[in-house]
Design a protein that fits this description.
heterodimer; A: mainly alpha; two-stranded antiparallel sheet; 15 helices; 2 strands; B: mainly alpha; Four Helix Bundle (Hemerythrin (Met), subunit A); 2 domains; 7 helices
Chain lengths: 328, 191
C-alpha cells in the first residue's frame, strides 16, 4: 500500500512538472514580446485580450492548425523524431532539480523534488548534452543547406560551451563537498556561493546563454544569414516543439544559476516562504535573459568560438585552481 | 522515472526508501525491458541501411545500457555512460558520417573474396565467444555487486588519484598527445 502511495506521489510530481513546463512558454512568450516592445519604445502585442494577454493562445492555435510540411527530400523518420529529441532532455533534467526542502500537505511531509540523486549535477550535465541530437538530426534530416549549416554551427557551439560550463561548477562542488543539488543548496544557508565563486558564476552564466541559444549567442537562428538555422524547414506543431524546448532550457539555466550560485531557496533579509524566494530569483534570471536579448548584438561565429575556448575555458580552469588552493 | 535516476542520498526520506524496496521486485521486469530494447537496437545498428539510423540506434542502445547500470546500483557509471558515450562520442560519429560519404565505404567488403570466408570468420568468432561465456568462471558469478555507501564520486576520485595515479596520468598524457596530433594533422591539410 505504502509503495503504491509513494509511486503515485512520484507520478503526480512528474505529471505536475510536465504540465507546468509545457504551459510555461505561454506567459514567457508574452513577457518576452512585451519587454521587447517597451525597450524599443512601442507597446508590444495589444490586440488579443487585455494588453495582448491572450496573444500566446492565439499563437498556439495558429501553430496547431498550420500545415505540417515535410520537405520532399527529407529523411521522414528523423525529421519527425528530431523535435521530440529536442523537447525531451530539458524535461528529463527537471527530475533532478530540487525546488525546496519539504512542505506539509494534510499532515504528510512532501519533498519538493522528484529525486535527490547523489550524482544530480553530473546527471543534469549529461542530459543537457543530449539536447544536441535534436539539433543535429533536425538540421540533417531536412536536407537543406541552411538547416545543415545551422545545425553544424549549433553543435560546435553547444559542445564548446558545455566544457567551460562543466568546469565552472567544479568550484561549487569543492565548496559543497557533494554533487547532490539539495546538499549544494544546504551548504549555502549562511552565505551564497556567488560571494566565493564570482568567476564561476560569470563563466556559467555566459556558457548558459550559449547553451540556451540566446542572444548574443543565438547563431543557430542567425536569421540574417541562415534563414532560421536548423529548424528552417519546420512548421506548425513541430516548430512549436523546438520553441518550447528553447524556453524550457532558458528556465532550466536560470534555475541552475539560482541553485548553484544564488542560494536556491535560502532567502535573505525578508522572510518569505522558501519556494517563493526560489521562484522570484528564477524569474529575475529569466528576465535577465530577455533583457540581454534586446540589449546586445549577436557575435560572429569566430568570435563565439574565441570567447568559448580562449576566454571562458582558461577562466574556468583558473577558477578551479584558485578555489582548490583557497579551500583545500 | 525514479528508478532510472540513481540512488537516494538521504536515507531518512522514508517514502523513497519504500520505493527502493519495491524496486527490487520491479528490477527484474525493468531489466528484461532494458535488455530486450538494447538487443533490438544493437541489431538495428548492424542491419540499418542508412548509417545515420545506425548511429541513432547505437545511441538508444547506450541509453539502455546506462539504465541497466542504474539497476545494478551504479548511478555514477550510468551518468558517465550517458555523458561520454551518448553525449560526446556519438556526436563525433555523427559529424564524421555527415561530413564524408559513408555509403561508399559501406559498400566495400571488409573481408575480401565472396561470402564464404566472411561466414567462416563469423562462425569462428561466434564459437569463440560461446566458449568463453560457457567455460569462463568470470561470467557465472551471481554475487550482487557491493552496494556503495552512496558517496561514489569521492570513492572513485580517491581510487583514481591514489591507487591508480600512474595509469591515470599516462592515459591523460596519451589523450593529450592524440589531441595535439589531431590539431597538427588538421593544420597541415588546410595549408
Amino acid at each position: 500500500m505504502e509503495l503504491v502511495v509513494a509511486l503515485g506521489l512520484i507520478a503526480f510530481k512528474v505529471a505536475l512538472l510536465i504540465a507546468v513546463l509545457l504551459l510555461l512558454p505561454l506567459p514567457l512568450t508574452w513577457m518576452e514580446r512585451k519587454i521587447a516592445g517597451h525597450m524599443q519604445q512601442r507597446m508590444g502585442p495589444m490586440r488579443v485580450g487585455w494588453h495582448g494577454l491572450l496573444q500566446p493562445m492565439a499563437d498556439g492555435i495558429k501553430l496547431l492548425t498550420k500545415e505540417d510540411h515535410i520537405p520532399a527530400e527529407a529523411d521522414r523518420f528523423l525529421f519527425k523524431l528530431a523535435p521530440i529529441l529536442a523537447l525531451a532532455p530539458p524535461f528529463v533534467v527537471f527530475v533532478a532539480i530540487p525546488f525546496g526542502e519539504t512542505v506539509s500537505v494534510l499532515g504528510a511531509e512532501i519533498t519538493l523534488y522528484v529525486s535527490n540523486m547523489n550524482v544530480a549535477l553530473l546527471f543534469v550535465f549529461a542530459v543537457i548534452g543530449l539536447e544536441v541530437y535534436g539539433v543535429i538530426f533536425g538540421g540533417w534530416a531536412a536536407n537543406s543547406k541552411y538547416a545543415l549549416l545551422g545545425s553544424l554551427r549549433t553543435c560546435a557551439q553547444m559542445i564548446s560551451y558545455e566544457i567551460p560550463m562543466g568546469f565552472a561548477v567544479i568550484g561549487v562542488v569543492i565548496l559543497a563537498q557533494s554533487m547532490s543539488l539539495v546538499d549544494i543548496v544546504r551548504a549555502q544557508a549562511d552565505l551564497w556561493n556567488i560571494v566565493y565563486q564570482p568567476i564561476g558564476f560569470f563563466v556559467f552564466f555566459v556558457a548558459g546563454l550559449a547553451e540556451a541559444q540566446r542572444i548574443p549567442f543565438d547563431l543557430a537562428e542567425a536569421e540574417g544569414d541562415l534563414g532560421a538555422g536548423f529548424h528552417t524547414e519546420y512548421s506548425g506543431i513541430r516548430f512549436a516543439f523546438f520553441m518550447v524546448s528553447e524556453y524550457v532550457i532558458m528556465v532550466l539555466v536560470s534555475v541552475l544559476v539560482v541553485i548553484l550560485f544564488f542560494g536556491g531557496w535560502n532567502g535573505v533579509l525578508i522572510p518569505l516562504p522558501p519556494l517563493l524566494w526560489f521562484l522570484l530569483k528564477v524569474a529575475f534570471f529569466v528576465y535577465l535573459f530577455m533583457w540581454f536579448r534586446f540589449t546586445f548584438p549577436r557575435y560572429r561565429y569566430d568570435q563565439l568560438m574565441t570567447i568559448g575556448w580562449k576566454v571562458l575555458l582558461p577562466l574556468s580552469l583558473a577558477n578551479i585552481i584558485i578555489t582548490g588552493i583557497v579551500f583545500s | 522515472m525514479h528508478l532510472m535516476c540513481g540512488t537516494i542520498a538521504n536515507p531518512v526520506d522514508s517514502g523513497r526508501a519504500i520505493v527502493r524496496v519495491g524496486a527490487a521486485s520491479m528490477g527484474q521486469g525493468f531489466f528484461l525491458l532494458f535488455a530486450a530494447v538494447s538487443v533490438i537496437t544493437a541489431l538495428t545498428v548492424v542491419l540499418a541501411r542508412n548509417p545515420i539510423h545506425s548511429a541513432l540506434a547505437l545511441m538508444a542502445c547506450f541509453l539502455q545500457i546506462s539504465a541497466i547500470f542504474v539497476l545494478l546500483g551504479a548511478p555514477l557509471l550510468a551518468v558517465i555512460q550517458i555523458f561520454v558515450y551518448v553525449g560526446a562520442i556519438m556526436v563525433l560519429f555523427l559529424f564524421v558520417i555527415m561530413m564524408i560519404d559513408v555509403r561508399e565505404a559501406v559498400l566495400q567488403r571488409f573481408v575480401p573474396g565472396g561470402n564464404l570466408p566472411a561466414l567462416v570468420l563469423l562462425g569462428l568468432l561466434g564459437i569463440e565467444m560461446l566458449a568463453l561465456v560457457l567455460w569462463s568462471d568470470r561470467f557465472s558469478a551471481t554475487e550482487p555487486v557491493a552496494v556503495s555507501s552512496g558517496d561514489e564520486v569521492r570513492q572513485l576520485g580517491t581510487t583514481l588519484f591514489a591507487d591508480y595515479l600512474l595509469p591515470f596520468e599516462v592515459a591523460s598524457v596519451i589523450l593529450l598527445a592524440a589531441l595535439v596530433g589531431a590539431i597538427v594533422l588538421a593544420r597541415r591539410e588546410s595549408g
